[in-house]
Design brief:
Shape: globular
Order of helices and strands: HHHEHHHHEEEEHEHEHHHHHEHH
Helix content: 25-40%
Structural class: alpha/beta
Radius of gyration: 28 Å
Number of helices: 16
Number of strands: 8
CATH architecture of one domain: 2-Layer Sandwich
Length: 459
């Protein structure tokens, strides 16, 4: 009996074998399309939830389903395995945790707003590729992430030495332009007093500052802009466009005044869209981390018994930085983000799917993008269902209907309810804006004044 059971399970997965196929090919395509679309929405189904959906889909369409499905109210494991084998476009994957803000912020409205402002500022000042810059920070730590190693087959765990359990963070501020050039890095080290030996081995022209946390601050960002001015030769007669995010250290009056007096035009990205619109995040920082981890691993091998410290990071960056900040990587980042060559239609329709869950009219009367629901194949008659009648039975439902019920009708995709009112408390959301324009500067001054008055009233 064991041999028969194993042979039967194996036969279920042979090409063209229809015994375990409860649904027709067209109906299975509807289920596969549903799973793919749910995954693009960032609301993909686990294997257990898919089996529940398959059972509900079969009951809703009066399909002949195995008796065990009705007993357990769920499709069988063997059927689900066969379904996955028949639909090679599907695979069971470990999802990457993605915040709700990032999932919903990348939508057509915010992206079109960014490209409209980018086009306006380029046409107004006549910026050419060498004048269009992207600026951002990333972090490296004294505890690197080792790459894959060769070890014994079948071992549950293999290890490679690092300098500790938790490392110290060093912020690296970088700027690149659309021609493929870059400004030497600016390091923020987590100490109090600066020492010149902290830049030993760093890329030529590097500079740095200190802060107890190792994070970028308003004061240190002003120092970075002075570093940027030195290497970019910006002036009122040679203006430069800097595209950057809405971090608090970037958005303040001192920074804007310095930028305006030195020919810098600051354009901020929409919040939570840097994974798509920021060239450094698209094609540069990931190779930098890879190269850094590689040279850090080599350092640990060449210095057995020693811990990697913040004084060694500059030397490691000196090896990794030139490899990651190559002209090809930088130019590719500007190209795939649509900044240069300018292409406001660079993103496909399905790349906006993650925002469809929260697309709805808001209280201010703005209209948003209408949700896009994929077209599913036409309904098929249950009578066309193959399979031996002695192993399948009609699910206990009402009289069958000739109208096919789609998986979307059985289990609709998630959709946020309409907004109720306008939030009046909490931190004000950032937005895409040209900070150095006079109206934006005046508005920011008013916001900061109101903020200081609120603080004074609470004292």
């Amino acid at each position: 009996m064991t041999l028969k059971r194993l042979i039967r399970r194996g036969a279920d997965r042979l090409p063209g074998f229809k015994k375990a196929q409860v649904f027709t090919d067209e109906e299975e395509k509807q289920l596969a399309d549903y799973l793919l679309h749910a995954s693009r929405l960032n609301y993909g189904l686990s294997l257990m939830k898919f089996r529940e959906l398959a059972y509900e889909f079969g009951v809703a369409n009066h399909k002949k389903i195995p008796a065990t499905w009705d007993v357990k109210k769920i499709a069988g494991r063997d059927w689900a395995r066969s379904f996955m084998d028949r639909n090679s476009c599907l695979s069971l994957r470990n999802p990457e945790p993605t915040s709700l803000a990032r999932s919903t912020a990348f939508n057509k409205h915010t992206v079109s707003t960014f490209f409209a402002k980018l086009k306006t500022v380029i046409e107004k000042h006549g910026f050419t590729p060498e004048n269009i810059w992207n600026l951002d920070e990333t972090g490296v730590t004294t505890v690197h992430r080792p790459s894959k190693i060769i070890g014994p087959k079948g071992a549950k765990q293999v290890a490679k030495v690092t300098s500790g359990e938790r490392g110290q963070l060093v912020t690296v501020c970088s700027a690149v332009n659309a021609c493929g050039n870059h400004v030497p890095p600016f390091l923020i080290l987590p100490i109090v007093n600066w020492q010149d030996r902290m830049l030993q081995g760093a890329p030529p022209g590097s500079a740095g500052a200190t802060h107890s946390s190792g994070w970028m601050t308003k004061e240190n960002f002003l120092k970075y802009l002075e570093h940027f001015r030195k290497h970019s030769n910006c002036s009122l007669n040679n203006k430069q466009l800097i595209i950057l995010d809405n971090h608090d250290s970037h958005v303040n009056i001192e920074i804007i005044n310095f930028a305006r007096s030195n020919g810098l035009v600051l354009l901020t990205l929409p919040p939570h869209t840097s994974h798509k619109l920021q060239p450094l995040d698209r094609t540069v920082f990931e190779p930098l981390k890879t190269y850094y981890n590689s040279v850090a691993s080599d350092w640990m091998t060449n210095n057995p018994g020693k811990n990697l410290t913040i004084y060694d990071i500059a030397g490691l960056l000196g090896q990794a930085y030139p490899k990651a900040f190559s002209p090809a990587n930088i130019q590719s980042g500007f190209r795939v983000s649509g900044i240069f060559p300018f292409n406001s239609d660079i993103f496909r329709e399905d790349e906006f799917y993650t925002s469809l869950v929260t697309d709805r009219p808001n209280p201010m009367g703005e209209t948003t993008v209408d949700p896009v629901v994929p077209e599913f194949p036409p309904a098929l008659s249950p009578s066309s269902q193959p399979g031996p009648s002695n192993q399948l039975h009609q699910s206990p439902t009402t009289n069958p209907s000739s109208v096919m019920i789609s998986p979307v009708e059985v289990r609709p995709f998630p959709q946020a309810p309409p907004r109720v009112g306008i939030p009046t408390k909490g931190r004000k959301r950032g937005r895409c804006r040209i900070l150095t324009e006079t109206p934006e500067k005046v508005e920011l001054e008013a916001e900061l004044l109101a903020k200081s008055e609120r603080k004074a009233s609470r004292v």
